[in-house]
Every structure is written in structure tokens, then in C-alpha cells.
Amino acid sequence: MLGASTDCYQRAEGRYRLMPAILRALTDHRVPFTTTTKSALLRRDTDLYAEAARVTDVLVMTSLGSLDERVWHAFEPAASPPRARLDTIRALREAGVPAGVLIAPVIPHAADRPEALDALVDACAEAGAVTVFPDVMRLSPGARTWFLTQTTRALPPHLHRRLAADFATRPSMPQQYIRQVTDHIHTRAAHHGMPRWQDYLSSLRTLT
Known about the structure:
The protein is 50% helix and 12% strand. With 208 residues, it is an alpha/beta fold. The chain folds into two domains: 11-137 and 174-202, pyruvate-formate lyase- activating enzyme (Alpha-Beta Horseshoe); 139-172. It has a four-stranded parallel sheet. Strand 1 (33-37), helix 3 and strand 2 form a beta-alpha-beta unit. It starts with 10 loop residues before the first helix and ends in a 6-residue tail after the last helix. The model has no long low-confidence stretch (mean pLDDT 95).
């Protein structure tokens, strides 16, 4: 799994170009792999992913939690815009590379309205995503301080107060809330014929 601990297509990759050699090594040895990123820089290596997908199981997951550019500007300013990430999925699929979407982080109150989640899943399907994996936001103590500072700048005061209260003494939302959000996303994805991430992987021979 590439990009699970931290994004492997951060800005430094544009300078040091480490990923092409990694992808060639994985391809040469037919190692099955997944990549997760929120950067459109991955499109630079589309041909390498396509070559790998011809000889082993590959799944590229693009992280995208909202189509709302206000949410992007507020909480992911260094990441590629939402539409650029969808275009990356589309380019990969056109090249024959399996690509899905890690719908994350779903930010409570700011990006969790049912109609917004529906629009996001619909856009993923339209781009050709083969699967989705929903993940509701969790906050470590250090991230909490930064996040709540951003909410004071980007969100209406009542939403900031709700988020501050929700995460005052816990790192995540209640399990019932998380189930409601993930079930909603999975139901919408099923409408488009997109299986859950776990089910998609179980259908592959070497990524399980």
C-alpha cells in the first residue's frame, strides 16, 4: 500500500520523482499494490500505472471528501482541487487502470448533507470509479487545534461551535453517526453498481 501513512505525491515528489522508479520495480516483479493520493500529480505516471495494471492487480484510490471548493480551500489548501482529482480518476480509467475514491475525510456538519454526499458519489461514478471507501473525519490532539482554528475562519459561527463541542473530548463522532454516513454513501454507490472497497478487493486474486 503506497500512500497509506502519508501522501506519496506531495509537492516534493514533483522535484525528486521517486515514484516512477518505485512503480517500475513493482511492475518488473509483478507485485500487486494500491496507491492513495489527493494529488493530481499522479497523472504524470499514468502510463506507468497502465503498464503495471497489465501484469498485476493495481488499484489507485483518490482521496476526496467533498466537491465544495470552500471546504477544499479551508481544510485542504495544498491538495489538488476536487475536479482535478476527479479528472485524475477519469484519465486513469481511460488508460485501463482501476481507480476508486476514498471518500475522506467526511467533515461533520460541513460536508455531510445527504444531497452533498449523493452529488459526490454521483461524480465519482461519472468519472469511472470502480469502488468507494467512506471515512468520517477523526482528529488527533494536534490536528484538532489546527482544524478548529480553520473552522473559525471558514465556517459560520454555529457550525464552529457544533464541531468544537463534538470534538471537545473525543477524536471522532459517535458510532451511530459514522454508520449513518457510511451506509448512506454505500447505498448511493450501490445504485451505480459500485461495490464496497472490501468486496472489490475480495474479487481480486492478489490484493486480498
